[in-house]
Design goal:
Strand content: under 5%
Structural class: mainly alpha
Order of helices and strands: HH
Distance between the termini: 108 Å
Radius of gyration: 31 Å
Oligomer: single chain
């Protein structure tokens, strides 16, 4: 290895573009979390731990969306039942008023 290198005629090489729909980021992850993902990839016969992290995040988001959707459905069912009961009660009172006349 030389003590000094001459970069006066150096040219930059091509920058590899990121895949479409992907963004390069820098994040800090606890060592044990990163080790767990790397170990899982190694157990599965190789691959990319970053892809595994991406899949885990996507699964979490999908599950959270499902929980939110189920909660919204439950609340809507409860509200619709309350509305239907109140609507039926109003209709019955209105019907009694008409027959009493």
């Amino acid at each position: 290895m030389k003590r000094e290198y001459d970069f006066s005629r150096a040219k930059r090489g091509p920058v590899a573009p990121a895949a479409k729909g992907k963004t390069r980021i820098t994040i800090r992850i606890d060592d044990d979390i990163l080790d767990w993902f790397r170990h899982r990839v190694h157990e599965q016969g190789g691959g990319n731990y970053q892809t595994l992290i991406n899949l885990a995040l996507r699964e979490h988001i999908t599950r959270e969306d499902g929980i939110l959707a189920e909660t919204l459905r439950r609340v809507l069912r409860e509200e619709m039942a309350t509305y239907a009961a109140a609507s039926t009660a109003r209709a019955m009172r209105s019907s009694r008023k008409r027959t009493a006349r």
